Amino acid sequence: MRLKLLSVFVATQLLSFGIWHALYQAEPVVVQASEPTQVHAAPEAKLSPVADTPEVTLSLHFAVRNMDEGRHFLNSIKQNQIETALKKMPQAHADSVENIILDYNPQAHRGLGGNSLIILRAVNMSTEEMVGVLIHELGHNVDYAYLSPENTERKSTFLDGKTPVYESDPSLDFYRISWLSDSKRKKAATKLDFVSGYAMTDPFEDFAESYVYYVFHNKDFKQLAASSKALYAKYRFMKYEVFGGAEFDSGEGQVDENKRPWDITVLNYDVAQFLS
Q1: How far from each other are the two terminal CA atoms of the chain, in whole angstroms?
Q2: How many other CB atoms are there within 10 angstroms of residue 163's CB atom?
Q3: Cα 226 to Cα 242: distance, rounded to the nearest angstrom
Q4: How distant, in Å, are the alpha carbons of 43, 88, 100, 146, 172 from that of 49?
Q5: How many CB atoms lie within 10 A of CB 107?
Q6: How far apart are CA 86 and CA 100, in angstroms?
Q7: How far is residue 176's CA from residue 182's CA, in Å, rounded to a whole number?
Q8: CA 169 vs CA 4, 174, 204, 270: distances in Å
Q9: Dihedral sign of CA atoms 57, 63, 67, 73 in order
Q10: Contact in structure between 142 and 93 (CB atoms under 8 Å)
Q11: b/e sequence 8-42, b meaning 16+ C-beta within 10 Å
């Protein structure tokens, strides 16, 4: 979830999930509540998107909050897992993150990302889910920083909170596949044009959910892309504009083309293989 102007996120997320569940009868999931903030708003696989490239280097600053003294060892493990996961990603993507906060409040939001920052809840999440949320939030930073506008001469119809998205922003080509503005989907867009129910909430979550799906469920994404022109366009944008033509050897390629999960970050994948 992006970290810009999220004072109304709790209500909108709960409402969005209720509508999704009622209309599309998605499997029940636990929706995590978020906190208001002024920075941006949650099978075996061998993942090698950047083969034959130099090892990714990181320049991260870790901080913690709500952590008691007995969790120092756990905190070290989590930092190592986060660093290992980010080193699996392209260097330019990893460079979009400078600060990571691990929050040990069990009621904290699962994740927030943007403005070179990621906040992760460090308790009550499996390693699999935590890394999934991490990559989702990395997607927001890639959207915000890696795909940044060349100039600010013309504003588009999209707003990120109160911040305009400029016409030179490369991400607009992705947003406009399914969206007319930050809050209005195209009339022809259906639930089958998105990788998840949460992706339907706004174009920024559409981007981040597609990003994490591309990483951990690439074969599944590719199969869905064959059944939807919009998903085909989104897959190609991720492949060529975001990952420079590289694909991940992940997912099973066996999905229900007529059903979408609510949240990509809770889908099963082989986290041990990813971190190895």
Answers
A1: 26
A2: 12
A3: 20
A4: 18, 8, 23, 17, 24
A5: 12
A6: 12
A7: 10
A8: 17, 10, 13, 34
A9: positive
A10: yes
A11: ebbeebeebbeebbeeeebeeeebbebbebebbbb
Is the torsion defined by CA of 193, 199, 205, 209 positive or negative? negative
Residue that the structure tokens 């979408």 belong to: 260
Question: What mean pLDDT is predicted for residues 156-182?
Answer: 96
What's the pLDDT tens digit per position in 183-235?
999 999 999 999 999 999 999 999 999 999 999 999 999 999 999 999 999 99
Please identify which residue in the block is written with the tokens 């190592």: 80
Those residues whose C-beta lies under 8 Å from the C-beta of residue 77, and which sit 6 or more positions away, are none
Amino acid identity of residue 41, one-letter, is A
Can you give the pTM of this predicted structure?
0.84
